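Practice set, problem 2.
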Amino acid sequence: MACGAILALAACAENPPPPGAGVVVGADYYDGYYDGFYGPFDDGYWGDDGFFWYRGGDHNWHRDEGHHFSRTAQAGFTHIHGSGMHREH
């Protein structure tokens, strides 16, 4: 797997993508729990800051300041699973 990622990156160095194109090396799959407070969301990931970042119905990224997403099961939370890509904010 690591060799495949290295080869993919090496290929990008030789043939860079056109402006505006993104290079996807792998998805950042996540499991967690959500209490539904923000309503439906499109995508998300666990950030380096320890918070869950989600893209809401407005298509903007938001940090879960209210801790409505959790890595562990809690009363009133439902299981979520996704394939959001890790991003820097």
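Problem 2, part (b): a different protein.
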Amino acid sequence: MDMLTSTTAVFSQRATQLTSSAIREILKITERPEVISFAGGLPSPAGFPIEELRAAFDRVLATQGATALQYGRTEGYTPLREWVAQDLSRDGAPVDPEEVLIVSGSQQALDMLGKLFIDPGSRVLVEAPSYLGALQSFSMFEPQYQSVPTDAGGLIPESLDAELTREARFIYVLPNFQNPTGLTLDRARRQALVERCAALRLPVIEDDPYGELRYAGEPQPGLLELGRAAGATVIRLGTFSKVLAPGMRLGYVVAPRDIIAKLVQIKQATDLHTATVTQMAVYETVRSGFLQTHLPKVRALYQRQCGYMLDALQRHFPADASWTRPQGGMFIWVTLREGIDTTELLQRAIARNVAFVPGAPFYAGVRAPTNTLRLSFVTVPEDRIRAGIQVLGELIG
């Protein structure tokens, strides 16, 4: 039977401008077992609480099966929303459950926020570099990106002046163990950021998928907490992907009620609601304090993995290379000497069965440097980390 390889359908202008994620394209190559992949931002399966989740699903279906398998509220399962509100309130920012919306992964939240805020040509502020998945999501709505300067400490709040932020719809920030750099904003920069955004009436989207994965340094207050004290509008995104398992596709948005109300309308037009049975099983898992005993094990695992990679970089990379030393999360950002093109380096690395992500796709609204790359360390065994980094060191020369 002949395969249908083309269509007479006319795509929208938006659809014709879509491009595939650079990371997802690289991951197609890394499916080969011989490839040592530092490319995917995948949590370690060793940290998945499989038995606890299985038991939670069993309990939910055995005791509340009819509810779990029925349609639910767009806002989300009420006990889970209450748990999220209570959990965040412990950090000093009182959150009401009515300010919480459960979503199908925080990637869905990014798409919904793009629909809410961005018109074609709207100015959107992002870090340089920034999370590729957010750039891909926001780009659907044809914004005008404006990159905010960064340095070794991350985003520079002092750069947020009236001209840079003029008519901007929001600033998108990852303050903890940023993807892709692994950097964390210190308290002084966080405070300066929310105070400037309050004065400029600029909403802040705080994306914090990695905040619970700190394994070094001192915890920092969230932008939501600081922002509410300063009078700033902060929209916080959180996820269960990194603390339980990404296959659950479960996240949440915390925002003022008027924003939540609009997001609820957008979600109703998107998928009606997030899977009820998944929400109920996650609540059953976390409600009794499970994360307090589970997360220390995950943090210890990630700390070991990070240490293996930092040691290998020190041993095998040239002296003129530099890299970040994350206090948590999953990523190390490497800067090589001028003149090296990491996109070209990737092709040579793949020929040696090693993969990483070149840095250029993480930039928007600014000319991207060609000599940077992102390494992810949490899913690769120690011996393969050392072997893969040695190969990259040899190729860099």
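Answer key, part (b): The first helix runs from residue 13 to 16. The first strand starts at residue 36 and ends at 37.
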